[in-house]
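Entry type: protein chain
Record version: 2
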Amino acid sequence: MVQVRSSFCYGGECVQVEFLQRAGVLVSHPEQPEPLYFTRGEWQAFIAGVKNGDFDLPD
């Protein structure tokens, strides 16, 4: 299990990602009691979308 926090965190605006060995990914926020679970495939698809700009905020 590996936990990662973005290097761009500031002012409490942050999420934490926990990589579970071969099982998937947990994404949590300090103010939310329950983390979100994603399979490895779901996480890989999400990251590909982020890199492609699919989730950029509108201007």
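Comment: The mean pLDDT is 89.
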